[in-house]
Amino acid sequence: MENQQIFRYDEPFKLESGQWLPEFQLAYTTFGQLNAAMDNVIWVCHAFTGNANPTDWWNGLIGEKRLYNPTEHFIVCANIIGSHYGSTNALSKNPISGEPYYHDFPFISIRDVVRSLDLLRQHLGIYKINTILGGSLGGQQALEWAVLQPDLIENMILFSTNAIHSPWGIAFNESQRMAIAADPTWIERSPKAGMNGMKVARSIALLSYRNYATYNRTQSRDEGQIDFFRANTYQNYQGEKLGKRFNAFSYWTLSKMFDSHDVGRGRGKVEEVLGTIKSKTLVIGISSDVLFPPEEQEFIARHIPDAKYALINSLYGHDGFLIEFEAMTDTIKNWSKDLIKGVLSE
C-alpha cells in the first residue's frame, strides 16, 4: 500500500534565479520498507503533469507484481515544487502576504527541484539510491541529480529525455504559454485563471507527444467525412480532461522549468559534465518521439561513462515511455542481467 505524506521545509529556500521561497512543502509517496542494509531505494521522478503516486501513471513498471514492487523495494516519489498535487505551487498561500502567490510565484528550475528533492531524501534518512527512474521532465531531474551528487545514485534509468532542452522543445512550450496568455482571464488572481488557454495549450502539446502516424492510426477519418472528425473530438477531450485536474499556473511554471534544463550551465561543456556521472546508466529512447528525438538519448549515453542505450520501436511517440511497459521492462531486465554478469566477471 502507498503511504502519502507531506515534507515541510520551514526555512527560506534560495532558488537558482536568486529569488527565495519563504518555505515549501513536498507531497510524497512511499511504497514498501527500507531494508536493514538501506540499499533497496527506488526513486521515481515524475513527468510534466504527473503526481507523487507512480502507480497512477507508470503502473506497468511500479506496483504489486511489477518490476519495481513494494515487497522488494522502498519506492519513493515526490510531487515537485510548482506542480498541482500537494506541493508548494502558485495557488499555495504565500506566508509573507497571506494570499496565494498566483503570478508572483517565482521561477523554478530543474536544479531547484533537485535540491528540494535532496532535502526530502535527507529527511527520510536515505544515504544511497539504488536506482533512480525518470522520463521526460522526470529524466531531466534524475540526470541533474546524478551530476549534482555523483556518489549518491548507483543506477540510473532515463526515458525519453535530454541533457539540455532543445530550441524545438522550448518553441513548443512557448506556443503553449502563448495560448494561456491569450486567455483574457489569465491576468486574474484566481485559481481558474487561464483555464481555457491551458486547454488549448494541452491540445498543442498532444501534437508533440504523438505524431503523424499515431493520429492516422488512432484518430482516423471515415470515408467521405467532411466534418466532426475524431481528431477534433480528441483534441478537445484532452484539453477538457486536463482542465479537470490541473491549473494554468502550474502548467506555466513547469513548462518554464522544462526550458531551464541544461546540465552544463555554469559547469562547462555538456559532454564533459555528463562524463562526471558515476551512476551505471541505461538510456531508453522511443523511435517515433518527435519532442525528445532518439538522438538526444543517444547523446546522453555516448557521454556518460559505460552507459547503455536502447531504442524501443513504438507508434506512440513521446508518450511511448508511458505506454510501452512490456518493452521497457524487458529492456531493463536485460540491462540488469548484463550488469550482474559484468560484476561477476570482474
TrEMBL record:
Species, as recorded: Emticicia agri
Principal subcellular localisation of the protein: cytoplasm
Keyword vocabulary terms for this entry: Acyltransferase, Amino-acid biosynthesis, Cytoplasm, Methionine biosynthesis, Transferase
Designated name of the protein: Homoserine O-acetyltransferase
Quaternary state and interactors: Homodimer.
InterPro entries tied to this protein: AB_hydrolase_1, AB_hydrolase_fold, HAT_MetX-like
Catalyzed chemical reaction(s): L-homoserine + acetyl-CoA = O-acetyl-L-homoserine + CoA
Family listed: Belongs to the AB hydrolase superfamily. MetX family.
Active site: S136 (nucleophile), D289, H318
Pfam families in UniProt: Abhydrolase_1 (PF00561)
High-level lineage: Bacteria, Pseudomonadati, Bacteroidota, Cytophagia, Cytophagales
